Amino acid sequence: MNSQQFYTNRKTVFLLATLCCFLWGSAYPAIKNGYEMFGIAAQDIPSKMVFAGYRFVFAGLVLMVLAAFQRKPLFALSARDWRGIGMLGLTQTAIQYVFFYVGLAYTTGVKGSIMNATGTFFSVLLAHFIYHNDRLTYAKVIGCLVGFAGVMVVNFSEDLLDFHFTLLGEGFVVIAAFVLSAASIYGKRLSQRIDSVVMTGHQLFIGGVVLTVAGYAFGGHLEGWTWASGSLMAYMVLLSSAAFALWSLLLKYNRVGLVTVFNFLVPVFGAVLSALFLNESILEWKNVVALVLVCAGIWMVTRVKDTKEDVAHS
After folding, report:
1. Which residues, at least 6 apart from 90, have a Cβ–Cβ distance to it below 8 Å?
2. Who contacts 58 (Cβ-Cβ below 8 Å, separation ≥6)?
3. N or C: fewer beta carbons within 10 Å in the chain?
4. % of the chain exceeding 70 in pLDDT
5. Buried b (16+ CB within 10 A) or exposed e, 163-188
6. What end-to-end distance do the CA atoms of the chain give, in Å?
């Protein structure tokens, strides 16, 4: 079985996409604990940028070391490829996270999680206009709506009854979701001519450097290094490198809509894992209902089988 056959196998897609979302979901409690360990205040956006910058710089280095061990050409890239990777790192990692962190500072975590889930809609909509084999269908639309309903359920609280919307808050989170969606599709195109691991390693490193330098430039800092905080950072580095690399491979070989719909699982895993590590009740009714809705939405979007022509042009 070659790489294309492996990464387009439906069982492989389901397993790896779910694993990526589980890893990103585990970042919710990890980041929260990280802010506490490193003494980062809720409104201290520059320090949050430094924290994220370190995470992505080291995640990029991990992938580049892995690529080097696999004897993949790390730097044998054309000027065009370097420009593409630089643009990807600037948008998918740096700019996206700046909008996301600023947005979260001006809205609630509940609204932020829901607004961030709009990225799946952007991905499916953009893919409709870019790829001839990834058109919108009633099943996709309904599946996305059902999955989004699951995200709303898992985040259900009194905050949802407040329909207040600001550009700096909810607006910036939506912009971050759009930037990530557009950059992911751009990354899919780059991965057709650049090895996915090499591409992801470079873009994470470049984006991480931009975040770190910008964070320090605006007065950010990262103090409180201990064995515990260092171990947490190491975990976040590994989850980022693994999840982003696998996600890039899945996008390279599959339709965008088939893969990105799994993003609805991230806030569900995040809520469940946060409850677990905060010693709260995991089996709340909303968690169960949310998981059912998200899984139903994923099933509706992914139930259509790819043809050989679809795989070839994805």
Report:
1. 206, 207, 210
2. 208, 233, 237
3. N
4. 90
5. eeeeeebbbbbbbbbbbbbbbbbbbb
6. 19
